[in-house]
Amino acid sequence: MDLSRTPARRWLSPVPWGFALLATVSSLTYGGDQAVNAWASTNLANLGDHPVEALITSAFLFGADPWASLRGIAFAGAMLAFLVIRFGNMRTLALVAAGQVLGTLVSEGLLAARIAGGQADPALRVMLDVGPSYVIVSGLAAVVVAGARRWHRWTAFAALVVRAPHITSGLTTLGVTPVGHVTALFTGMLLGWAMRSSGAHHRSLHRLTLRAAPLQTEERSNGRALSYLVDNGVQWTALPVGFPYWRAIYDFFRRWRACGYVRELHERLRRTARERVGRNTEPSAGVIDSQSVDASETVGEERRGYDGGKSRDGRKRHILTDTEGLLLEVTVTTADVHDSKAALALLETFMDQPGRLLQLVWVDSAYQGPALAEAFARHGVRVEVVRRSDGQRGCLPLPRRDHAPHLKKPLLIEQGLPLPQRTEPNAPSKGRWGCPRPKAGGRNCATGHDEPEPALHRDSRGA
């Protein structure tokens, strides 16, 4: 996830500041009170008597030394701020709470088993055990795995390295504190990794819904600028003065692409478009096709290839559409990649997403081979090859294969853009940005007449 601009309000979020305030008041007031520390300890006796109160209170007691407590509180607050920037307030609370609870339960459960087996002193049931170390360790581990910025991750990693002796001290003897530290460490790593892939969707996804309130003025202007760039094939720096500054547009596009917003926006527009024509939101049939385009001389040899069948030296895009011509999936390769090999990755990417109902795909004779047939069979997709009639020449529509060409004009990104940046990874995202409103326009090769763009797609242009 790339957050090129961190809003100041993230640093003023209630989680880090609320934790710092409560920890400061608790530590300075009750840090040296032995009775309070005994009541708040997460030992076996307190977990059997008042577990919730002990788990919560112990996380806010840093010790009797006020200066050491303030240093620890500042460090913990910065760590929580890193988490809030990446995951938001609620997920941050859930993550550190899981580290605190699991670290305590696993360590104390192991201690109870050792006491029952006669391997530990029963007096350990009432030992003093307070402090937010499980919270800090789990939070640092999550920042290392999924921090929003590189310096966040390196700072958390350095802090873990410095605290490693304290974290692992006594682990060989299965001490309560080191076992809890290791449990909290792995809890933070696993939860951070699990939430990293889905963390993009906690940021106002209702804005992407067509039935939700209109987008804010800035986001709407950015969307229109991107539509202009894709439709007209201009460079980033050549955007007209009526749009926001080009660098802001590029940063907007990069963030949305990294967070998966472009795909999510396209998915929701496509589902709504299918509902408007009386179809199910998920298609059961589709068409796979490809198109090669010449690359400019600025595109390096490692990112271009020669398509001997079409005499194109450049790149090739492979698309999967439904029977309405709406884009389902797109991938961009060098032009020398055979259609059957690219279709394998195209199919796997589409079918790996939940809720797919694809059962039938129409292709041309290039999409054959044992690996591709095995992939289709594994996903339960039936393939029908649509072939040209013997002696057929010229531009004539083929049954079931006349849908994919409707998308080829919007996908001509490289044609008017003589820059190497029109290659991976931007090309598929720009293709999706241009294809929520696929054009049936252009000249119909069967009738010879110009076809107007459907009103449905014109309505979607400003979304």
What's the arrangement of secondary structure elements?
Elements: H1 8-11, H2 14-30, H3 34-40, H4 44-49, H5 51-58, H6 66-87, H7 89-116, H8 133-146, H9 150-168, H10 176-198, H11 217-232, H12 246-259, H13 261-276, E1 285-294, E2 305-307, E3 312-322, E4 327-334, H14 339-351, E5 360-363, H15 370-378, E6 382-385, H16 426-434, E7 442-443, E8 450-451, H17 455-460
Parallel strand pairs: 1-5, 5-6
Antiparallel strand pairs: 1-3, 2-3, 3-4, 7-8
Helix pairs in contact: 2-6, 6-7, 6-8, 7-8, 7-10, 8-9, 8-10, 11-12, 11-16, 14-15
Question: How would you explain this protein's 3D organization?
Answer:
The protein is an alpha/beta fold and 463 residues long. The protein folds into 2 domains: 8-201, Rhomboid-like fold; 224-387 and 396-460, Nucleotidyltransferase, domain 5 (2-Layer Sandwich). It contains 17 helices and 8 strands. The strands form 2 sheets. Strands 1, 2, 3, 4, 5 and 6 form a 6-stranded mixed beta sheet that branches. A two-stranded antiparallel ribbon has the order 7-8. The longest helix is centred in the N-terminal third of the chain and has 28 residues, at 89-116. It is elongated and about 90 Å long. Mean pLDDT is 76; it is low at 1-9, 199-216, 408-425 and 436-463.
